[in-house]
Known about the structure:
Elements: H1 6-12, E1 19-20, H2 23-26, H3 31-46, H4 48-71, E2 78-81, H5 84-94, E3 102-106, H6 111-123, E4 127-131, H7 139-149, E5 154-160, H8 172-178, E6 183-186, E7 205-209, E8 221-225, H9 227-230, H10 246-251, H11 259-273, H12 276-298, E9 313-317, H13 327-341, E10 343-344, E11 347-350, E12 353-359, H14 366-383
Helix pairs in contact: 3-4, 3-11, 4-11, 5-6, 7-8, 12-14
Pyridoxal-5'-phosphate binds near residues 83, 160, 186 and 209.
Amino acid sequence: MGAVDLDLLEKFGLDPTVLHLNHGAFGVAPITVRREAEAWRDRAERNPNRFNGAELPELVAQARGRAAEWIGVDAESVGWVRNVSEGASAVISSLDLEPGDQIVVCNHGYGAVRMAAEHWATRRGGSVQVADFPLGAEDDEIVAAFSGVCGPRTRLVIVDQITSPTATVLPVAGTAAAVEAPVLVDAAHVPGTLPVDIEGLGAAYWVGNLHKWAFTPRGTALLWTREDLRHRTPPSVLSWQLHDGYAAAFDHPGTGDYSGWLAAPAGLDFWTEVGGWEQIDRQSAMVEAAQKLLADALGTSLDRLPANPAPTMRMVRLPDRLFGDDESETRAGRERLSSQFGIQVPTSRFEGTEVVRIAGAVYNTPDDYERLADALLTIADERS
Ligand SMILES: Cc1ncc(COP(=O)(O)O)c(C=O)c1O
């Protein structure tokens, strides 16, 4: 068992008195990458007129080109967005929805993206349908759940490639092949954790955050769109480059701070420096062991957990009503772990059971999960 990796915590500027087990929520850029973003901001301020008026378009396009190459797609096929929410909003708002049209999401899907789908669908007199499948469902069952709720009025199917509440890898390609409607892949947790052939998925749109697992500054994400749909998928913020083609239109959402996008390549370099896919394999093995350690310590079941778990996150069931009977009590448990034990980890309910989602980031070590187990056992003892 390795000890807490203070060197790495320091590289990220993370508070060493806190146990950080929720990298998946917001990510964190290492200090060197933050300094790179600062350097871009300083450069912009030295001659704001020249930087913003003349230099910016090429610099932003260059950074996009590097990020596109890193995720394995053509530079012209992706647009910069600040996050998955912004990319999903651009896609959903671009649909010419009519009364009676439907958008399909799933019960493991991300709440904020579902809200955007509900907003646009109901505003146009349509509705959102939910594909329901249980925890631990096999891929066939998941695909059947999606295709089962699709119909002739389905205009978009949103599939989370890695789900947030349940840390499951969903069968995106299988679903895209089984449904007729275009598929939007919510790949918020994918860049840097799951190798993916984006064009080969058979989807219409794919949007992924670089700022979660690829160490770029927060506010850096890419929206890939299939070629035939690009001309009718504008960014959410329309500005001077609107008529310069799909990718360029996304490059310029007006005057602003572009340092995050410009420093994104430094984050991607850091991902390679700390071990790339080999490091992800190590993190994967670590969270796999941690899931078992926690379930054993807490006496909870490992049955019917995701058949294809996320590479760097795992779900663990908590003892019956550890924090309480309803959502607000479960959420209060998260706060208690934070304030009483200094542990950052998300607690939630799924299928009526309280669960915790652990992350394994590059700076985590196996003893981190022992510390979490001790804290959860202390809470269980206090309750009994
Ligand atoms: C599956 C999924 N989709 C979308 C998002 C939203 O990401 P953002 O807040 O960066 O837009 C998240 C955030 O954690 C997520 O887990």
